[in-house]
Design goal:
alpha/beta; ten-stranded mixed beta sheet; two-stranded antiparallel sheet; 12 strands; 41% helix; globular
Length: 308
């Protein structure tokens, strides 16, 4: 899911594409592949992705061959991310020499010898979108990638799942679950305090005056899915692990790390429990560790697959 789409955030989402690829729980993914393989192909697979960002998940679904005959819709609250998703998809198709035609409604038809996929991106608030779709169970597969930890599960999850057709699948990936780890340590006590306060900022986040998200969404999804009447097929860890190799950080992951540190800095700026703690110096030292190819970053996350 996008936040206001400044260029550095768009770059952050692009930078973490390869990281997400290697972090996904591929056992859970294989169960998704198997479940889709067993689905009757009498009609196109109807896919809804909420919080689609710049469209990296639909690229992954296409690359892995999960979309053959399908109608995919991706929504995100930020129009800048949707514009970036459309641009990326055109580049993706061109790079694979696949025709991409656009119809009068703005949907894009991705047609290869083995695939015929209609792709629609739309800028929409999740709850506004669900309100417009009230009473409809239109989707065969619901995807939420690195987004459920930004919403109130009690309010949002049942509404999301209600949009699935009977037997419809959900695939919820990279759900944050309460561990942010940096190595090497700077000051163990300060490191622990910053982690706790950063997670606390997730737990107290509000949107439209309502609670929004949690630092322990991953573990809470087990109970929330059961309460919503969902049945779980597979679950497993999908931790981000970023470390420098012999040639430094892969791809654009140094930028990704700088963005994470800046995010923590913004979230905790002026926090009373950090007064006099040297927090600005901590932020500066973490940036220096990235430049020196020293910083290791781990975030604990969980993937889920199930059905209604």
């Amino acid at each position: 899911m996008c936040t206001p789409a400044a260029p550095d955030f768009i770059r952050y989402l692009a930078a973490k594409k390869a990281l997400d690829d290697r972090s996904l729980n591929w056992q859970v993914w294989d169960h998704l592949v198997e479940a889709l393989r067993d689905r009757p192909e009498s009609s196109p697979l109807r896919v809804l992705e909420v919080g689609c960002g710049i469209g990296t998940m639909v690229e992954r679904l296409l690359d892995q061959g999960l979309l053959t005959r399908a109608a995919y819709t991706g929504i995100d609250v930020e129009p800048g991310c949707i514009r970036a998703a459309v641009q990326r998809l055109h580049g993706y198709a061109a790079g694979r020499q696949v025709p991409l035609t656009v119809d009068a409604a703005g949907s894009m038809l991705f047609t290869s010898p083995t695939q015929e996929v209609r792709i629609t991106f739309a800028a929409a608030d999740l709850f506004d979108f669900l309100g417009r779709e009230a009473g409809e169970a239109a989707w065969d597969l619901l995807v939420a990638h690195a987004v459920l930890d930004l919403i109130n599960l009690a309010a949002g999850l049942p509404r999301l799942l209600s949009r699935l057709a009977p037997g419809g699948l959900f695939y919820f990936s990279l759900n944050f679950d309460g561990a942010t780890i940096f190595e090497p340590s700077i000051d163990p006590d300060l490191d622990a305090l910053i982690e706790a306060l950063y997670h606390g900022s997730m737990d107290t986040r509000r949107s439209r005056g309502r609670p929004s998200g949690s630092s322990r969404t991953g573990r809470r999804l087990f109970g929330s899915l059961k309460e919503a009447g969902a049945r779980l097929i597979a679950a497993g860890s999908s931790d981000w692990v970023v470390f420098p190799g012999p040639d430094g950080y892969p791809g654009d992951e140094a930028f990704f790390l700088h963005f994470i540190i800046d995010t923590i800095g913004r979230a905790l700026h002026g926090h009373p429990e950090l007064a006099g703690s040297g927090f600005p110096a901590w932020i500066a030292q973490r940036h220096l560790q990235i430049e020196a190819r020293e910083l290791i970053y781990i975030a604990h996350q969980l993937d889920f697959l199930g059905y209604i």
